[in-house]
Amino acid sequence: MRTNSKRKQFVRKQRAHRIRARLATTADRPRLSVERTLKHIRGQIIDHAGTVLVAIADTHVKQNKLSGVALAAATGKLLAEKAKAKKIDAVVFDKGRYAYHGRVKAFADGAREGGLIL
Questions:
Q1: How far apart are CA 3 and CA 35, in angstroms?
Q2: pLDDT reading at 2 higher than 70
């Protein structure tokens, strides 16, 4: 029998796999994957082959006074600007194992505000 922490890791990985399996990524619409930790939030735009096209973390945002939801929104907006520079207009949002709420939702809204079509 698995220990409790091993079971939690397994369930999280299964949830992310289940979400990712339903995404319809194409050459025209790469995947925008988000990763959230207790302190930070990161985003990557990944093509169909698995190559990272654009990556951003909240540590790249220059505004020191932001935190939480506001920082996640600013990070999403910065990612959208970098994607626009590489001529990426539309992506499929991959929330992974996280609920679409709080910082994850703010990240997606920031990317939309920056001009990406999710």
A1: 25
A2: no
